[in-house]
Amino acid sequence: MEKAAGSPCVGGSYPQKNAEILSSQYGINLFLAGLLLTFAWAVHAVGISKSHLLSYLITLMLIQLLWMLWYLCRSCTQRRLIRDKDTHAGARWLKCGITLFAVITLILDSFKIGYYIDFSNCLSPTEGIFPVTHAVHTILQVYFLWCHAKDIIQSFKTLERFGVIHSVFTNLLLWTNGVLTESKHQLNEHKERLITLGFGNITIVLDDHAPQCNCTTTTLCSIFSQGIYYLYPFNIEYHILASTMLYVLWKNIGRKVEHHQQHKTPFKFHGITVGMIFGLAVLTSTIAIVVVYLIQIGRSKIKSELALTMFYLHAIFVLALMCTAGIVALLIYRLEDRSLDNSKNPARKLDAELLVGTAAGSWLLSWGSILAIICAQAHPKYTWYNLPYSILVIVEKYIQNLFIIESIHREQEKMNDDIKTLRIVTISRGNALSLTPSYKEIYNGRAVPDSREVPCLFKGSVCGRENDSGGGAKEETSQDESSVMHSASDFSFSSRHSVTNNKRRILKNIAAFLFLCNLSLWIPPAFGCRPEYDNGLEEIVFGFEPWIIVVNLAMPFSIFYRMHSAASLFEVNCKT
């Protein structure tokens, strides 16, 4: 009988597990087909043009648009139904972030439309259809994520799994397309910079897939072509954020959740002044360094070397500060005795996996630089700064990952019952003249209606009561003893509370500082300040083409790591 009773549960979960496996395999094959098509276009494979790639991407976006419209219409017809929500998914700050990136992506699409109009004589119609479709896709997808990122789907589960996973890999392919286009633009200027540094023996033909006709309005074409590549970093971040939010939605399909109240943790500037000041100083100096780097690099050999030296020294200083802050935070955690929250949480699990997975991109580049410095026969002076820089990149990510992952897994601190209870009792001449009900009782809606009896707050204390018999001496002694013990207890509780508040204040300042530092370190590679390209030493040791391939594969993960770390640290600051 027990087996028969348990069989429906097994039978119900088995098809859903199959649906999860089938949908994931569908998504992977969808992605691999698009990836090979992208690679074939990049290497000028016979019979493959950019129009083929764009047609594939347009088809995927149209299918996702149809699915999202169907889901939104079905949701509108079922508005009165109570649905389960994942309170950890789709945080408001994450939605605001993706909206900002989406707005800039729409500007990018408008630039692409203008670029197509100016070169319409020699461009395929798909290059005009693509940005229009992408703009519509972006608007509807952001609306969908704002309204339904927290949904836990319990109906049409098999169909929804395929729809959501299709959306995940569509965004990943759009991210890949953006990364490739942006990387090709970076390579166009890379060879000239290496020649100015004296690496003239490196020869390779670079192709930028430029249109084979003249622009109708030269000024506008220049604005559009240059502006497009400065906006690509935001487009790349938009698609990777969208894919992660959709992945959490996919993992939540059919999930059973425990219904418990989720406490909101709003961001507050109070108490993080020190961290914000130091972080803003790092952000400001980083922007200045990037501007000077982009102006000086490639001008002459001396200016390029000075630009690289300046970048390395600044990065070494910032990374050393970040390592120190991370170590202090971990030491504070070691001094605290707080349990970890090991409950099932797809969003939190994905955050931890993305931190470690994307950090591998920076580690790969750093180990390549370290190996090149060790194996190279000639070492220009500026290349020696690359050694401590690469080592610190590896160490800093180790420490920061530990801090973030432990922070998001720590249970939120609960206020001690002893601190919650307000021990305010005024006794005069044997009578309890005033008695303030405890915070705990007010919080639970139970204030003490009778002031004739004061609850005992700790063992050995004297409970204040009205004394009808008037034993004066005993009562005064009792009051004195009670007053002394209350004072000692209050001092103990307040000192413990003060220490806890100091620790929390330090942790919040560290999280705020690391948040701004990660935003600062996201800016240089996202906007073309990439010493891994311009250093030149790695190209000599590994060869130009192999090293460029390594950089182009690892750099997008490194860029995403910084933005994802900043988002995670923002959450840590709110939670602490």
Descriptive report:
The chain is mainly alpha-helical. It folds into two domains: 15-256, no CATH class; 268-412 and 499-575, no CATH class. Helices cover 72% and strands 2% of the residues. It has 16 helices and two strands. The chain has helices at residues 2-42, 50-77, 92-118, 126-148, 157-196, 218-251, 273-296, 301-335, 346-375, 386-409, 417-420, 439-443, 472-526, 531-534, 537-542, 544-575, and strands at 425-428, 431-435. A two-stranded antiparallel ribbon has the order 1-2. The protein is globular, with a radius of gyration of 30 Å. Mean pLDDT is 77; it is low at 1-11 and 415-470.
Q: Residue ranges: pLDDT <50 for 5 or more in a row?
A: 1-11, 415-470
Number of strands: 2
Helix and strand run: HHHHHHHHHHHEEHHHHH
Numbering strands along the chain, what is their spatial order in the largest sheet?
A: 1-2
Helix content: over 70%
Strand content: under 5%
In this structure, how is the largest beta sheet organized?
2 strands, antiparallel
How many helices? The count is 16
How far the N terminus sits from the C terminus, by CA atoms, comes to: 50 Å
Helix vs. strand class? mainly alpha
User: If you compute it from the alpha carbons, what radius of gyration comes out, rounded to the nearest whole angstrom?
Assistant: 30 Å
Which descriptor suits the 3D outline? Answer: globular
